[in-house]
Each structure stands twice: as C-alpha cells, then as structure tokens.
Amino acid sequence: MRIAVEGCAHGELDIIYETIQEIEKIDGRKIDLLICCGDFQAARNLNDLKCMAISDKYKDMCTFYKYYSGEKKAPILTIFIGGNHEASNYLQELPYGGWVAPNIYYLGYAGVVQVAGIRIAGLSGIYKSRHWMQGHYEKPPYTDSTIRSVYHIRNIEVFRLKQLSGKIDIFLSHDWPAGVTKYGDEDILLKQKPFFKDDIESNTLGSPPCMELLERLYPSYWFSAHLHCKFAALVPEKGGARVTKFLALDKCLPKRKFLQVLEVRSQEDGPIQLNYDLEWLTILHLTNHLLSIKSSIHYMPGQYGGGRWTYTPTAKEKQIVYEKFGSNLRIPLNFTRTVKPYDPCDINTRIEWPRLLINDQTTRFCKMLGIDDPSALLQIITNITMDNSRSSELSMETSGEYMSESMDISFDEESVFSSTFEENSTHKYFVDNSPTNFSPKSDGDDSDNGDMSKSTLHGTVNSSNTETTTEIADSASMDGSSEQTGCVQTEPNCKKFKRRNYSVYSTVIVSSLLDICVSYAPNNVPTLCHLTRKMDKLTIISVILFFLADISAIISISMPDWIITDVGGDTRLGLMWSCMTLYNRPQVCFKSQLESEWMMALVCIFIGCILITATVILLILSHWDRTVIPFARWVGFSAMILFCNAAVIFPMGFHINEIGGQPYQLPNSHQVGIAYILFVLALWITVISELFAGKVCLPHF
C-alpha cells in the first residue's frame, strides 16, 4: 500500500493533491492514502477563520471549502490530525473523529483507525503544560485565551493512547517527541534551524507526552510536522528489538520537503476502506468517566489509587463493544454539512460570531458506543440546548444541507455526568421536563473559567421554568456586516494648489530644529547644530535629510525585521540578523546566511550608507569651502543609485528556502517588516535630499 505523508498542510489541498498526481504520473503507480500531520486548516467559511489562532493578516480561505461544499472531491482517501493552526470550532464538533468532507477523515483529539489492516493512531494539537491537566472546557466563540488552549493536548487523550496494546503501524503527532533529535543528525538540523540549539541542549524541543507514547508503543513509523523542516531519526527500543522510524516534514511551500511517499505492507486485500479500531473503541467506552469539560485540574488514575488504573481492554470487554456496533466496524460514510460553505461569488456574505454546534456524526457515534459528547455537555452546562424540531429549520436556513437526527438531552445530573455505563444499558438521551435538582455545587473548581459564571448557572439551571429546550438564537453579526457598501471608484481631486508661505513654514521648521539641537548641545562644542547656523537654508535641509536617510538605512540593516511571518513561530528575517520566537520561548537571534541577491543588496546599502555619511561631511565642510558642494552632490547621487539597486535586487531573493516564494512575490504567509519600510523611506529621503542639494526643486531663498 502506497501512502503519501504530508507535513503542515496550511489549507493548500489543491497543491497537495496536484503534487500527488504528478508523482503518480512520473512512476505510473497509484497512491492509496494521504496522511496529514496537522495545521490542516479546514475552514468552511469566513466564520471559521475567526476560530483560527492566526494573525488576521495571514488568514486565508485557501481551498478546503471547495471539498466541503462538494465543488471538488478528494481524489484519494485522506486522514489528518489537528495542529495549532486550525478551524477549531469545526474540529471541536468531531472530538472522536469524523468526516470533515467526503473522503477526508479527521482522527479527533486522539484516535486509532485501520485502513486495509494498517493500524494508524494519532494525537491532535500541541503540548502546553499549563493546560495539560485541564478538561476540554473551551467553546466558540473563543476568547483570546481559549482560541489557543483549545488545541492544546490534554492528559486524558495521552492516557487513553497508553492503554493500546499490539502493533501500531503509523503514529501521527503535530509536535515532535521531546528528545527525538538525539536519534538523528542534529548537526544537519542545526544548519537548517540554528535557533533550535538552546532548546535541544535543554531538552525542551518537542512534546514530553509524545516521547512517553513513543517509548511505550514503539510504532513502526512516527510522523510529525510543526517545526517546518525535514528531519529523520531511528529510535530503538530500550532493551527490545523494535525500532521506530521517525520523520518530520516541512510545510506546503515551493522548494520545501513537505511530502514523503512510502510503501507499507497491508494486511488485507480488496478496496481501500476505513474501519474503526476495536481496541480503541473499547478504551473510549471504558474511560468515558474520565472525560471533563471543566477548566479545573484533573488527574488520571494511577496504580496507587483506589480503583482501576489500567484500561487495556480484555477480550470480553472488546466483544461487548463489538456487538454494540453490530459486528461491523466499517466507518459509515455519513458526512453532513453543519454550516453554509464559503461562496466567493456571494457578495452578501454575513460574518457572524461562531457558536457551539452538535455534529450528527458525533451524536450517532456516541449513542452507539454509549459515551458522552463533550459538545453536548457544554451545551447543557451553558443552557443552550438544541430544540429538536426548530434546530432543523435553523440548520436548513443557515447551513444548507444539514441533516440531523433529533437529539434530546437529560438534565439529570447523575445521567449526564455519570462516570460509567453498564454493559447492558441502552445509553439513550431523554428529556426530563420535571423540576431538576441540577446544582452547580462545583463552581469553586471552575472559578478561573471565564466561559462559565456562577451567577449564570444559578440563574439558568435552578430556574422554575420547566421548559428544558430552547432555540439557539443567531449570533450577533459584526458591526455593519448587514449593510451593503457600494464599490464606486471616484477620481481624486487633481487641482494643484500654490504652496503659499512655504518659505515661512520651512524657515520656522529649520530654525526650530536648530534651536532644539543647540539647546541640548554642550557648551563650546562645535556641533552640527552650531555649524548649520552659518549655512544657506537649502544646504541645511540637505544635511538634515541626508542625515535622516543615513540613520534610517543603518537602523534598517541592523534590524531583523525585513521579512516577517508568524507561521510556526514569530520569525523575522534580516540582512545581518534573523530572529525567531518559538512558541512562547525566549527570542533567539542568529547571523543570517544570505543568498547572493540579499548579499548584493546588503553590500549596496552598506556602501550607500558610507557615501551618505561622506555627503553629510562634505556638506558641512562647505561652510568653509563652497567648492566641495559639487562633490557632495555626486557622492550623494552615487548613494542614491546604490539604494535604488538594493531596492530592485532585494525582492529578487524572495525565493530563498526561509521564505519559499518567487522573485518579487512573497507567499501569503509572509510580509515585509518595519526594517524594509525604513530602508524604502531612506531611499526616498535620499532622492529628496539630492534634489535639495542640487537646488533644482525650489528657488533660492
């Protein structure tokens, strides 16, 4: 079975599928399965972009919406996990996995599936210690905090994965396992990413829980992404014979190593189809009582506790779950849309605040397995439960073809938050219209959770109103989104006004600058300020402007902010220095390794700064010798030419590996920074300074 593995997809499905098709054309062999290691960005519409932890300037619909709407269909079966740049509201609808589009399957917070007998496990998200022991309490609309914590892995998912037994063929994680670099060529890695050095030495690069899983499961292959570089390693089992082949891949950009094709021997013949893993289903069933939707700290069972602490299922437990699924573990093709897909031709699209939705796939799965849907529990605790009949109408109006079975929720506290399910129970949800005794006695545990207030719980749950189901109202739309704005272009007013009193204004400005300069200069020191009092005004302006241009250019080349991006961390690329702030760690700066274009630009700017400095000196010397002014003009003109050359040459280097664009064309994930803007400003100031020095733009005073 031929499997293509992709690093960070970043929503570029069209490019990925086209690349796979080109590979198939080259060797004439079909690829059976595509696996993506996170940052999939399954954005269905503009509302989903509001749930992605990405700066607004980098948000892009990309191409997933075409596969969600049915405009296109994935040419091969695709399986993916979540990363740290996701439409989290959509993935939260499928905590146990499900189809996000036809032929595209999400593994959930954690999951295990089988494809033609090949066992594939995965863990979504990245590790952050402060959220590690919390429950899945986040819900849309997200706050500035929860939009990030929602994709942080929790201990319950890792605990469940540790219960697996038997062989795992492929394991997927977005984070690298911590310490995996010591099993590969660290020198080559540090040549690509020198700012990894401190993290590698302190063993803080990567996820400790992922390494715990690797050393417990030792899958045949472990694939990761996240750090945007390719890295391979072999991790042998300590005291055993198993070896895990680790491979991290780059993001989907030109000239990046983002795709790898491998062959894995399948255990079954016949058509490629996706099946549940029986052991994983049983683990989910047995550990349902460990699920939490609160922000308080929750511990997993341990061997010194009072109850069961290992949940690797027995044959009898697996048989019970097998019968629940009617002895058929094939994953049903039951994809349904829950929101209206993006339409680029619809100019009347309204952007609304996202809201918590229940996905019919999750409802069916939880009902069959007898476990809780975290989203349903969140709806209960916030008292926004769906009304069966009216939610169907609302879904049809706002979401197109949303098909959902009726789902009613019990307000009985014991049934909602029960830890275990009896083997012979039916696990059906029901409506309890009698007065409830649901009391938020544990509010103290959730005092830090901004999403659930104590007053709200007391005010809604303990109300005397016996109506237990309410319609979910439409979320408030963004200001002005309902108004239609005309796109009429108007010609600007081209009337040119005479610059009256210009000489007065310029004289006042120059005199004020000189007065300020002299007032702060030490006594009896022949500063530039003192000398300029005896120069003509145009020369003074030229000196000041050339000086400003020189300072701006020097500052620009000393800063690392020529090209910036926040994909995979805050990265700033410069001509002399580059810096990276990696996932809330201290900033690391290192000397830039320049390609020829950027090296030529740096040389031009450096020499230009020297010439501008010489121009300023010559103009100052003109106070005593007026004959040096022509030389100053020519030196300034040379600096201007060099700056212009640098401005033309620098964008030619946008193809470098750190950017991955084309000459004169930056990718959407990158943009110019303040240093580049300062240089362009220095260029224009130099041009204006040269005009003043040549006395061609204004008459003599």
Provide the low-confidence segments as ranges.
384-514, 523-534, 696-701
CATH homology group of the largest domain: Metallo-dependent phosphatases
Radius of gyration, in angstroms, nearest whole number: 32 Å
Let me know the number of strands.
Answer: 18
The strand order across the widest sheet is: 10-11-9-8-7-6-13
| Helix vs. strand class | alpha/beta
The proportion of strand residues reads 5-15%
Give the integer mean of the pLDDT values. Answer: 79
Structure report:
There is one protein chain. The protein is an alpha/beta fold. It folds into two domains: 2-379, Metallo-dependent phosphatases (Purple Acid Phosphatase, chain A, domain 2, 4-Layer Sandwich), CATH 3.60.21; 537-694, Butyryl-CoA Dehydrogenase, subunit A, domain 3. 34% of the residues lie in helices and 11% in strands. The protein is built from 22 helices and 18 strands. The protein has helices spanning 13-27, 46-49, 64-69, 88-92, 146-149, 155-162, 186-192, 197-201, 208-217, 278-286, 315-324, 360-369, 374-381, 388-399, 413-416, 454-461, 502-520, 528-532, 537-558, 596-621, 629-649, 674-694; strands at residues 2-6, 33-36, 77-80, 98-101, 104-106, 110-115, 118-123, 170-173, 221-224, 231-236, 243-248, 259-263, 274-276, 563-565, 570-573, 577-581, 588-591, 671-672. It has a seven-stranded mixed beta sheet. A hairpin with a 3-residue loop joins strand 15 (570-573) and strand 16. The longest helix is centred in the C-terminal third of the chain and has 26 residues, at 596-621. The protein is elongated, with a radius of gyration of 32 Å. The chain starts with a strand and ends in a 7-residue tail after the last helix. The relative contact order is 0.09. Residues 384-514, 523-534 and 696-701 have low confidence and may be disordered.
